[in-house]
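User: Hi! I have a protein structure encoded as tokens and I'd like to know what sequence might fold into it. I'm fairly new to this, so please keep things simple.
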């Protein structure tokens, strides 16, 4: 049975690093003795994209992640299902997530693209996060432009009454004035804790396990204590 509130790793857009952060959190919690499992509600662009498989590889355990629905077009789920001429209902996605959540002590739900991405029917990713009563970890880019995207995402979550754990600025390289000032500015603008995670790969090598460990090393104990996880 679920012992904690679900954690939702959501993004300010596509490609901000939700899967890497999900893998890092899942591995970190599992290594701390928690029954953590990642849940990807729907995977588009499959193959080759398979976020659940990335997390499972990062945790060296096929049971560390699951995905109930795969779609081939690399588009928003609702659009991908329409293009592929496949049925996709919000009720089915929600039921599958609830089933996995009920079977996991620390469920971590990875979002799909940004919060306003069409999921199924007239429902969006943010609707699923709200309906699952999850606490959100917001993943964003580190450089110029992230202040607006992140603040708008925070506003959207707050408007729906969704709990927010904090913000993770991904691929933080400390190379520009924008990067160096954005974390503090985001904390000032939103009132939430902001963490930074450095770039964890290059163009030639992708090692899920090493990337997950990199996330674990980058996240501070204070931030991890904000996660809705019961101490053992």
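Assistant: Happy to help. Inverse folding works backwards from shape to sequence: for each of the 232 positions I chose a residue that suits the local structure. Here it is:
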């Amino acid at each position: 049975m679920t012992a904690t509130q679900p954690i939702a790793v959501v993004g300010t857009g596509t490609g901000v690093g939700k899967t890497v952060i999900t893998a890092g959190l899942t591995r970190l919690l599992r290594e701390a003795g928690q029954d953590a499992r990642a849940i990807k509600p729907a995977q588009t662009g499959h193959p080759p994209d398979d976020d659940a498989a990335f997390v499972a590889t990062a945790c060296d355990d096929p049971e560390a992640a699951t995905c109930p629905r795969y779609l081939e077009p690399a588009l928003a789920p609702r659009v991908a299902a329409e293009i592929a001429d496949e049925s996709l209902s919000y009720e089915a996605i929600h039921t599958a997530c609830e089933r996995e959540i009920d079977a996991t002590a620390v469920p971590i739900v990875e979002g799909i693209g940004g919060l306003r991405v069409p999921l199924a029917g007239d429902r969006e990713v943010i609707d699923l996060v709200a309906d699952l009563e999850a606490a959100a970890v917001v993943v964003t880019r580190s450089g110029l432009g992230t202040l607006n995207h992140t603040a708008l995402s925070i506003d959207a979550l707050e408007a729906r009454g969704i709990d927010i754990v904090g913000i993770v600025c991904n691929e933080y390289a400390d190379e520009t004035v924008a990067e160096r000032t954005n974390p503090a500015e985001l904390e000032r603008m939103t009132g939430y804790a902001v963490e930074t995670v450095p770039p964890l790969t290059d163009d030639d090598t992708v090692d899920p396990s090493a990337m997950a460990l990199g996330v674990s090393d980058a996240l501070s104990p204070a931030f991890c204590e904000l996660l809705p996880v019961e101490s053992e």
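A useful reference point when you look it over: The mean pLDDT is 96. Feel free to ask if any position seems puzzling.
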